[in-house]
Amino acid sequence: MDRAADGSRRSECAQKTVLLGVTGCIAAYKSAEIVRGLQKAGVRVKVVMTEHACEFIGPTTFRALTREPVAVRLFDEPGDPIHHISLAQEADAMLIAPCTANVLAKLACGIADDLLTTTALALTVPLIIAPAMNVHMYENPATRKNMGVLHTRGTHFIEAGDGYLACGEAGRGRLADVDEIVDRTLRVLGVERDLQGKRVLVTAGPTVEAIDPVRYLTNRSSGKMGYAIAQAAALRGAEVTLVSGPTALDAPRGVRTVAVESAREMLAAAEEAFARCDIAVFAAAVSDMRPKNPASRKLKKGAADAELSTIELVENPDILSTLGNAKTSQVVVGFAAETDDVIENAQVKLSKKNADMIVANDVGGSLGFGTDDNKVWLVSADGVLDVPRLAKSEIADIVLDRAARFIEK
């Protein structure tokens, strides 16, 4: 698939370079995710590692992700005898994530005894630090003092989070969320992201329709695709409203989340946000039908057999059709989960629902509901884009790429 559009849509930040410093911490594996997050925003990433970091993750991983040389030792680059200076000069910002207590202390004292700290000392651009360590190390007065010293010098800190730590203890010290680190870094860079100033509505998850206070009708949707789209839109600068049916997922960071249960509740919440949105993505799996007369008490077997044997159903409102046919300037994206004739059914849905694009997927096999990846087709009046099997987070950006093109038309 041609990914050229992915870079062109972020032309403003295409020239930005972040030097990512990785230190010897168990959270070093998350640095690879940070690389991908920055790259999605169009940022060029170069990596410098401490020798201890190589005990947790190898330079080969970062070479593969960045397609750039990975710097580890002071004299690894024979063609550049002053490598720490050239690295510092090449960067628009340096991000150290994760940063250990040891490296924090060296930076605060101006100690430069390896390539990473020597490069940091030569910086004339912003330095961003995301620390990670044991809770007692993080709360130690020496560490807090070192952070204070660096803060007064203008260093940007992304504070560690609370939670279960690799050492077995719980408390503050775990590396901040990758999305938060990426977002803060982009803000320090002053990047105007491609959906900045846009409003995006996303529906996600299943709806549930009560039979009685205990039983209900629903479907297999996990909400993962819709949540991935909401998070991706927020990271690209959009103001996002996520209308979600019941899921086991954490609310995406930086997203306004409205929890609903039934299809009618979802329609009401979506209508409110739809009037002022630029892009509406209807990824929820909405129940087509609902019980006509849900019982106010539990229908007990033996006592309510007649009511349980025949449950009269009525049609739910069609949210995509209702709002698709009410659109003015909004870009409307729908989803089609099919078990056969996937593209043909999506093309019918595109016209019938007055959508700009339908994301179609085959849920008859091992993909679709509940998985972390998927294989989809993007169907629009422009044709059909065959998207290979990818992580849902990757598909989310591709969907938003295509949706943004409709705004430009």
Automatic annotation (TrEMBL):
Region named Phosphopantothenoylcysteine decarboxylase: 1-199
Pathway the protein takes part in: Cofactor biosynthesis; coenzyme A biosynthesis; CoA from (R)-pantothenate: step 2/5; Cofactor biosynthesis; coenzyme A biosynthesis; CoA from (R)-pantothenate: step 3/5
All copies of domain Flavoprotein, residue ranges: 16-188
Free-text remark on how the cofactor is bound: Binds 1 FMN per subunit.
Binding positions for CTP per the UniProt entry: 288, 298, 317-320, 335, 349, 353
Keywords: Decarboxylase, Flavoprotein, FMN, Ligase, Lyase, Magnesium, Metal-binding, Multifunctional enzyme
Active site, UniProt feature: 167 (proton donor)
Required co-factors: FMN; Mg(2+)
Enzyme Commission identifier(s): 4.1.1.36, 6.3.2.5
Reactions performed catalytically: (R)-4'-phosphopantothenate + L-cysteine + CTP = N-[(R)-4-phosphopantothenoyl]-L-cysteine + CMP + diphosphate + H(+); N-[(R)-4-phosphopantothenoyl]-L-cysteine + H(+) = (R)-4'-phosphopantetheine + CO2
Domain DNA/pantothenate metabolism flavoprotein C-terminal: 195-404
Region annotation Phosphopantothenate--cysteine ligase: where it falls in the sequence: 200-409
Family, as annotated: In the C-terminal section; belongs to the PPC synthetase family.
HAMAP family reported for this sequence: CoaBC (MF_02225)
Purpose: Catalyzes two steps in the biosynthesis of coenzyme A. In the first step cysteine is conjugated to 4'-phosphopantothenate to form 4-phosphopantothenoylcysteine, in the latter compound is decarboxylated to form 4'-phosphopantotheine.
Protein name per UniProt: Coenzyme A biosynthesis bifunctional protein CoaBC
Species this chain originates from: Raoultibacter timonensis
